[in-house]
Amino acid sequence: MKKILDIGQCDHDHGLLTKLASKAGASITRAYDSADAFKKLESEPFDLIWVNRMLDSDNSYGIEIIKKLAAHPSLSVIPAMLVSNFKEAQVEAQKCGALTGFGKDNLSEPTTLAAIKAVLS
Questions:
Q1: C-alpha to C-alpha distance for 53 and 33, rounded to whole angstroms
Q2: What is the second-level CATH architecture of the domain 2-120?
C-alpha cells in the first residue's frame, strides 16, 4: 500500500484527508509540525507528502517545509503537494518544487482524486 505523510492539518481536515487517501488506495500518517515531519521522513518511506499552507500547530508556513524538502538530497525525490485553496500559494509551492496541489474545497472533486492516484501510480 502507498503511504502519504500529511503535515500540519487540524483534526477535522486530517480526517477528511484520511478518507481521500483511502479512496486513492493509500494509508496516511500525520505529522504535526516540521520537526515531527522530518523525524517521520527519516524513519519510514513515503510515496507522497501533503503540506498544509499554514500548519495548525504553530501557524508556520508550509512553503518553508516544501523548500526544505526540495533542498534535501534524499527527500527531494518524494512528490509533495500543498493543501490550500489559495491559487497564489499553489503557484509559490510549485516554484519551490511541489507538484500541483489541491484545496480543501476540492477534496470531493474527481480531478483531485485522479491527480493523487496519478502521483501514487
A1: 12
A2: 3-Layer(aba) Sandwich (3.40)
